[in-house]
Amino acid sequence: MALHNTATPEYSRYSEIIDVRSPGEFAEDRVPGAINLPVLDNEERSRVGTIYKQESPFAARKMGAALISRHIADYLDDYFWDKDKDYHPLLYCWRGGTRSHSLALILAQIGWQVTVITGGYKTYRTQVRQQLTQLPGQFQYRLVRGLTGVGKTAILQHLARQGEQVIDLEAIANHRGSLLGQPEDNTPQPPQKWFESLLLQKFQSFQQSKTIWLEAESSTIGKLHIPAQLWHEMKTAPSVQLHLPLEMRVTHLLQQYQDLIEHPDRLKQQLYRLKYRYGQAQVQQWYDLIDREQWRELVSDLLTHHYDRAYHRSLQHQTPPHYEFTLTNLSEAALRTAARSLRDWATAGC
Q1: Where would a tag sit more exposed on the chain, N or C end, judged by fewer CB atoms within 10 A?
Q2: CATH 3.40.1350 is right for the domain spanning 139-347
Q3: Residue 50 in this model has a pLDDT that exceeds 60
Q4: Geometric angle at alpha carbon 337, from 334 and 342, rounded to 5°
Protein backbone atom coordinates (compact mmCIF):
# COMPACT_ATOMS: atom_id res chain seq x y z
CA MET A 1 0.00 0.00 0.00
CA ALA A 2 1.38 3.44 -0.99
CA LEU A 3 -0.54 6.20 0.76
CA HIS A 4 1.20 9.54 1.33
CA ASN A 5 0.31 12.95 2.72
CA THR A 6 1.63 16.24 1.41
CA ALA A 7 1.11 19.85 2.46
CA THR A 8 2.63 21.53 -0.63
CA PRO A 9 1.97 19.37 -3.69
CA GLU A 10 3.48 20.00 -7.12
CA TYR A 11 0.27 19.33 -8.99
CA SER A 12 1.91 18.39 -12.29
CA ARG A 13 3.50 15.33 -10.66
CA TYR A 14 0.19 13.48 -10.37
CA SER A 15 -1.92 11.56 -12.85
CA GLU A 16 -4.87 13.74 -11.87
CA ILE A 17 -6.26 15.73 -8.98
CA ILE A 18 -9.46 14.45 -7.37
CA ASP A 19 -11.70 16.65 -5.24
CA VAL A 20 -13.98 14.36 -3.23
CA ARG A 21 -16.06 17.16 -1.70
CA SER A 22 -19.71 17.69 -2.57
CA PRO A 23 -20.65 19.31 -5.91
CA GLY A 24 -21.64 22.49 -4.07
CA GLU A 25 -18.25 22.83 -2.42
CA PHE A 26 -16.52 22.06 -5.71
CA ALA A 27 -18.53 24.73 -7.57
CA GLU A 28 -17.44 27.44 -5.12
CA ASP A 29 -13.73 26.79 -5.62
CA ARG A 30 -11.25 24.00 -6.27
CA VAL A 31 -7.69 23.35 -7.31
CA PRO A 32 -7.55 24.28 -11.03
CA GLY A 33 -7.63 21.11 -13.13
CA ALA A 34 -9.25 19.00 -10.41
CA ILE A 35 -12.14 16.65 -11.20
CA ASN A 36 -15.02 16.11 -8.81
CA LEU A 37 -15.72 12.60 -7.49
CA PRO A 38 -17.91 13.41 -4.49
CA VAL A 39 -18.12 10.72 -1.84
CA LEU A 40 -21.11 12.60 -0.39
CA ASP A 41 -23.47 14.63 -2.55
CA ASN A 42 -24.93 17.95 -1.41
CA GLU A 43 -28.00 16.47 0.27
CA GLU A 44 -26.05 13.64 1.93
CA ARG A 45 -23.44 16.02 3.33
CA SER A 46 -26.19 18.21 4.77
CA ARG A 47 -27.97 15.19 6.28
CA VAL A 48 -24.80 13.83 7.91
CA GLY A 49 -24.00 17.28 9.30
CA THR A 50 -27.49 17.61 10.79
CA ILE A 51 -27.21 14.21 12.51
CA TYR A 52 -23.74 15.17 13.81
CA LYS A 53 -25.15 18.28 15.49
CA GLN A 54 -28.58 17.06 16.58
CA GLU A 55 -28.00 13.41 17.42
CA SER A 56 -24.35 12.39 17.88
CA PRO A 57 -20.99 12.33 16.07
CA PHE A 58 -21.04 8.52 16.30
CA ALA A 59 -24.37 8.22 14.48
CA ALA A 60 -23.19 10.69 11.85
CA ARG A 61 -20.00 8.71 11.24
CA LYS A 62 -21.98 5.47 10.79
CA MET A 63 -24.29 7.05 8.25
CA GLY A 64 -21.39 8.81 6.52
CA ALA A 65 -19.40 5.60 6.26
CA ALA A 66 -22.31 3.77 4.61
CA LEU A 67 -22.94 6.55 2.09
CA ILE A 68 -19.25 7.03 1.30
CA SER A 69 -18.74 3.29 0.80
CA ARG A 70 -21.55 3.12 -1.75
CA HIS A 71 -20.13 6.00 -3.76
CA ILE A 72 -16.62 4.51 -3.70
CA ALA A 73 -17.95 1.17 -4.90
CA ASP A 74 -19.64 2.88 -7.83
CA TYR A 75 -16.41 4.71 -8.74
CA LEU A 76 -14.41 1.46 -8.60
CA ASP A 77 -16.86 -0.23 -10.96
CA ASP A 78 -16.85 2.71 -13.34
CA TYR A 79 -14.30 5.53 -13.12
CA PHE A 80 -11.25 3.66 -11.82
CA TRP A 81 -11.81 0.40 -13.72
CA ASP A 82 -9.47 1.24 -16.62
CA LYS A 83 -6.67 2.93 -14.63
CA ASP A 84 -3.30 1.20 -15.04
CA LYS A 85 -0.91 0.25 -12.23
CA ASP A 86 1.12 3.47 -12.59
CA TYR A 87 -1.88 5.64 -11.81
CA HIS A 88 -1.01 8.17 -9.05
CA PRO A 89 -3.85 10.50 -8.02
CA LEU A 90 -3.75 13.44 -5.63
CA LEU A 91 -6.85 13.60 -3.39
CA TYR A 92 -8.31 16.23 -1.13
CA CYS A 93 -11.49 17.03 0.79
CA TRP A 94 -12.36 19.97 3.06
CA ARG A 95 -9.74 19.37 5.78
CA GLY A 96 -7.92 16.29 4.52
CA GLY A 97 -9.92 14.04 6.82
CA THR A 98 -12.50 11.28 6.55
CA ARG A 99 -13.75 11.81 3.01
CA SER A 100 -10.42 11.92 1.21
CA HIS A 101 -8.78 9.24 3.33
CA SER A 102 -11.74 6.89 2.83
CA LEU A 103 -11.19 6.85 -0.92
CA ALA A 104 -7.39 7.02 -0.61
CA LEU A 105 -7.25 3.97 1.62
CA ILE A 106 -9.23 1.81 -0.82
CA LEU A 107 -7.18 2.95 -3.82
CA ALA A 108 -3.94 2.32 -1.96
CA GLN A 109 -5.10 -1.16 -0.92
CA ILE A 110 -5.64 -1.97 -4.60
CA GLY A 111 -2.01 -1.09 -5.21
CA TRP A 112 -2.02 2.45 -6.56
CA GLN A 113 0.24 5.14 -5.19
CA VAL A 114 -2.07 7.73 -3.63
CA THR A 115 -1.32 11.13 -2.09
CA VAL A 116 -3.66 13.20 0.08
CA ILE A 117 -3.26 16.95 0.64
CA THR A 118 -2.66 17.45 4.35
CA GLY A 119 -5.30 19.86 5.61
CA GLY A 120 -7.28 19.44 2.39
CA TYR A 121 -8.89 22.36 0.58
CA LYS A 122 -8.28 24.63 3.57
CA THR A 123 -4.53 24.20 3.06
CA TYR A 124 -4.89 25.01 -0.63
CA ARG A 125 -7.04 28.08 0.08
CA THR A 126 -4.51 29.40 2.60
CA GLN A 127 -1.79 29.07 -0.03
CA VAL A 128 -3.90 30.97 -2.58
CA ARG A 129 -4.41 33.88 -0.20
CA GLN A 130 -0.73 33.98 0.72
CA GLN A 131 0.50 33.85 -2.87
CA LEU A 132 -1.91 36.54 -4.03
CA THR A 133 -0.38 38.87 -1.45
CA GLN A 134 3.15 38.07 -2.65
CA LEU A 135 3.22 37.28 -6.39
CA PRO A 136 1.64 40.48 -7.76
CA GLY A 137 4.44 42.55 -6.24
CA GLN A 138 7.08 40.55 -8.13
CA PHE A 139 5.99 41.71 -11.63
CA GLN A 140 6.05 44.86 -13.73
CA TYR A 141 2.76 46.02 -15.25
CA ARG A 142 1.43 48.16 -18.08
CA LEU A 143 -2.21 49.26 -18.12
CA VAL A 144 -4.39 49.88 -21.15
CA ARG A 145 -6.88 52.72 -20.53
CA GLY A 146 -9.56 54.43 -22.59
CA LEU A 147 -13.22 55.28 -22.98
CA THR A 148 -15.79 52.51 -23.35
CA GLY A 149 -15.62 51.02 -26.83
CA VAL A 150 -12.06 52.00 -27.80
CA GLY A 151 -11.03 48.34 -28.15
CA LYS A 152 -9.04 47.71 -24.98
CA THR A 153 -9.86 44.00 -24.90
CA ALA A 154 -9.02 43.63 -28.60
CA ILE A 155 -5.64 45.30 -27.99
CA LEU A 156 -4.92 42.90 -25.12
CA GLN A 157 -5.74 39.96 -27.37
CA HIS A 158 -3.30 41.20 -30.01
CA LEU A 159 -0.61 41.76 -27.38
CA ALA A 160 -1.07 38.13 -26.28
CA ARG A 161 -0.77 36.95 -29.89
CA GLN A 162 2.50 38.86 -30.15
CA GLY A 163 3.93 36.99 -27.15
CA GLU A 164 3.12 39.40 -24.34
CA GLN A 165 1.88 38.28 -20.92
CA VAL A 166 -1.74 39.37 -20.57
CA ILE A 167 -4.32 39.05 -17.80
CA ASP A 168 -7.83 39.62 -19.11
CA LEU A 169 -9.57 40.29 -15.82
CA GLU A 170 -12.98 40.70 -17.44
CA ALA A 171 -12.69 37.29 -19.11
CA ILE A 172 -11.68 35.60 -15.87
CA ALA A 173 -14.49 37.42 -14.03
CA ASN A 174 -17.00 36.56 -16.82
CA HIS A 175 -18.13 40.19 -16.96
CA ARG A 176 -17.67 42.97 -19.48
CA GLY A 177 -16.93 45.52 -16.78
CA SER A 178 -19.90 47.86 -17.20
CA LEU A 179 -23.58 48.32 -16.48
CA LEU A 180 -24.36 46.04 -19.43
CA GLY A 181 -21.61 43.64 -18.53
CA GLN A 182 -23.51 40.38 -18.13
CA PRO A 183 -22.09 37.93 -20.72
CA GLU A 184 -24.06 37.03 -23.83
CA ASP A 185 -25.01 33.55 -22.62
CA ASN A 186 -26.18 35.04 -19.29
CA THR A 187 -23.93 32.72 -17.29
CA PRO A 188 -23.19 33.93 -13.75
CA GLN A 189 -19.88 35.25 -12.59
CA PRO A 190 -17.63 32.76 -10.79
CA PRO A 191 -17.51 32.82 -6.98
CA GLN A 192 -14.82 35.11 -5.54
CA LYS A 193 -12.66 32.18 -4.41
CA TRP A 194 -12.69 30.53 -7.85
CA PHE A 195 -11.88 33.90 -9.46
CA GLU A 196 -8.82 34.11 -7.22
CA SER A 197 -7.77 30.54 -8.00
CA LEU A 198 -7.91 31.26 -11.74
CA LEU A 199 -6.01 34.51 -11.25
CA LEU A 200 -3.27 32.79 -9.27
CA GLN A 201 -3.01 30.13 -11.98
CA LYS A 202 -2.31 32.94 -14.46
CA PHE A 203 0.43 34.42 -12.29
CA GLN A 204 2.06 31.04 -11.83
CA SER A 205 2.28 30.58 -15.60
CA PHE A 206 4.13 33.87 -16.14
CA GLN A 207 7.83 34.81 -16.19
CA GLN A 208 8.77 37.50 -13.69
CA SER A 209 11.25 38.98 -16.18
CA LYS A 210 8.40 39.93 -18.55
CA THR A 211 5.77 42.66 -18.24
CA ILE A 212 2.12 41.89 -17.56
CA TRP A 213 -0.50 43.83 -19.53
CA LEU A 214 -3.97 44.50 -18.10
CA GLU A 215 -6.94 46.70 -18.80
CA ALA A 216 -7.41 49.47 -16.26
CA GLU A 217 -10.32 48.53 -14.01
CA SER A 218 -12.04 49.71 -10.89
CA SER A 219 -11.40 47.61 -7.78
CA THR A 220 -14.47 45.52 -8.60
CA ILE A 221 -15.59 43.75 -11.77
CA GLY A 222 -19.27 43.09 -11.43
CA LYS A 223 -19.61 41.51 -8.01
CA LEU A 224 -15.98 40.37 -7.79
CA HIS A 225 -13.10 42.15 -6.05
CA ILE A 226 -9.60 42.39 -7.48
CA PRO A 227 -7.15 41.10 -4.81
CA ALA A 228 -5.73 43.98 -2.78
CA GLN A 229 -2.07 43.58 -3.75
CA LEU A 230 -2.81 43.39 -7.47
CA TRP A 231 -5.10 46.41 -7.20
CA HIS A 232 -2.28 48.32 -5.50
CA GLU A 233 0.12 47.44 -8.32
CA MET A 234 -2.44 48.46 -10.94
CA LYS A 235 -2.98 51.88 -9.37
CA THR A 236 0.74 52.71 -9.64
CA ALA A 237 1.54 51.05 -13.00
CA PRO A 238 2.45 53.06 -16.14
CA SER A 239 -0.51 53.33 -18.51
CA VAL A 240 -1.35 53.97 -22.13
CA GLN A 241 -4.45 55.93 -23.13
CA LEU A 242 -6.24 54.71 -26.27
CA HIS A 243 -8.37 56.99 -28.44
CA LEU A 244 -10.93 56.10 -31.10
CA PRO A 245 -13.53 58.29 -32.87
CA LEU A 246 -17.02 58.13 -31.39
CA GLU A 247 -18.62 56.66 -34.52
CA MET A 248 -16.12 53.79 -34.51
CA ARG A 249 -16.76 53.17 -30.81
CA VAL A 250 -20.49 52.94 -31.54
CA THR A 251 -19.88 50.41 -34.33
CA HIS A 252 -17.62 48.33 -32.08
CA LEU A 253 -20.10 48.26 -29.21
CA LEU A 254 -22.99 47.31 -31.47
CA GLN A 255 -20.94 44.29 -32.50
CA GLN A 256 -19.96 43.44 -28.92
CA TYR A 257 -23.47 43.79 -27.45
CA GLN A 258 -25.48 42.15 -30.22
CA ASP A 259 -27.11 39.91 -27.61
CA LEU A 260 -28.79 42.89 -25.95
CA ILE A 261 -30.13 44.16 -29.26
CA GLU A 262 -31.67 40.74 -29.78
CA HIS A 263 -33.26 40.91 -26.29
CA PRO A 264 -34.55 44.49 -25.92
CA ASP A 265 -36.57 43.71 -22.78
CA ARG A 266 -33.42 42.63 -20.98
CA LEU A 267 -31.66 45.78 -22.21
CA LYS A 268 -34.47 47.90 -20.78
CA GLN A 269 -34.17 46.13 -17.44
CA GLN A 270 -30.48 46.97 -17.34
CA LEU A 271 -31.04 50.61 -18.25
CA TYR A 272 -33.76 50.95 -15.61
CA ARG A 273 -30.98 50.77 -13.03
CA LEU A 274 -29.89 54.25 -14.21
CA LYS A 275 -33.23 55.84 -13.30
CA TYR A 276 -31.99 56.98 -9.90
CA ARG A 277 -29.16 58.93 -11.55
CA TYR A 278 -30.75 60.42 -14.67
CA GLY A 279 -34.46 60.33 -13.94
CA GLN A 280 -37.43 58.65 -15.57
CA ALA A 281 -37.55 61.07 -18.52
CA GLN A 282 -34.02 60.21 -19.68
CA VAL A 283 -34.57 56.48 -19.24
CA GLN A 284 -37.83 56.76 -21.22
CA GLN A 285 -35.92 58.44 -24.06
CA TRP A 286 -33.60 55.42 -24.19
CA TYR A 287 -36.62 53.09 -24.14
CA ASP A 288 -38.11 55.00 -27.10
CA LEU A 289 -34.87 54.59 -29.07
CA ILE A 290 -34.97 50.84 -28.33
CA ASP A 291 -38.59 50.58 -29.45
CA ARG A 292 -37.74 52.38 -32.70
CA GLU A 293 -34.63 50.19 -33.10
CA GLN A 294 -32.44 53.27 -33.41
CA TRP A 295 -29.45 51.41 -32.08
CA ARG A 296 -26.68 53.78 -33.18
CA GLU A 297 -28.47 56.75 -31.63
CA LEU A 298 -29.01 54.77 -28.42
CA VAL A 299 -25.39 53.69 -28.06
CA SER A 300 -24.08 57.16 -28.93
CA ASP A 301 -26.37 58.73 -26.32
CA LEU A 302 -25.39 56.20 -23.66
CA LEU A 303 -21.72 56.85 -24.33
CA THR A 304 -21.93 60.62 -24.17
CA HIS A 305 -24.42 60.88 -21.29
CA HIS A 306 -23.33 57.99 -19.09
CA TYR A 307 -20.15 56.09 -19.89
CA ASP A 308 -17.90 58.97 -20.95
CA ARG A 309 -18.97 61.17 -18.05
CA ALA A 310 -18.31 58.37 -15.58
CA TYR A 311 -14.90 57.74 -17.13
CA HIS A 312 -13.88 61.40 -16.96
CA ARG A 313 -14.95 61.51 -13.31
CA SER A 314 -12.70 58.52 -12.61
CA LEU A 315 -9.73 60.32 -14.19
CA GLN A 316 -9.75 62.76 -11.30
CA HIS A 317 -8.38 59.96 -9.11
CA GLN A 318 -5.81 58.62 -11.60
CA THR A 319 -2.34 59.68 -12.61
CA PRO A 320 -2.03 61.02 -16.19
CA PRO A 321 -1.26 58.41 -18.86
CA HIS A 322 2.39 57.83 -19.74
CA TYR A 323 1.63 57.26 -23.44
CA GLU A 324 -1.27 57.95 -25.80
CA PHE A 325 -2.22 56.17 -28.99
CA THR A 326 -5.01 57.04 -31.43
CA LEU A 327 -6.68 54.42 -33.61
CA THR A 328 -8.77 55.38 -36.61
CA ASN A 329 -10.54 52.01 -36.71
CA LEU A 330 -10.46 48.55 -35.13
CA SER A 331 -9.43 46.50 -38.14
CA GLU A 332 -7.05 43.61 -37.58
CA ALA A 333 -4.25 45.57 -39.26
CA ALA A 334 -4.87 48.63 -37.08
CA LEU A 335 -4.93 46.53 -33.91
CA ARG A 336 -1.69 44.75 -34.83
CA THR A 337 -0.01 48.11 -35.45
CA ALA A 338 -1.29 49.48 -32.15
CA ALA A 339 -0.10 46.43 -30.23
CA ARG A 340 3.38 46.74 -31.75
CA SER A 341 3.48 50.43 -30.84
CA LEU A 342 2.52 49.64 -27.24
CA ARG A 343 5.22 46.98 -27.06
CA ASP A 344 7.81 49.44 -28.34
CA TRP A 345 6.71 51.97 -25.74
CA ALA A 346 6.98 49.42 -22.93
CA THR A 347 10.39 48.18 -24.17
CA ALA A 348 11.71 51.74 -24.26
CA GLY A 349 11.18 51.89 -20.51
CA CYS A 350 8.18 54.23 -20.61
Answers
A1: N
A2: no
A3: yes
A4: 125
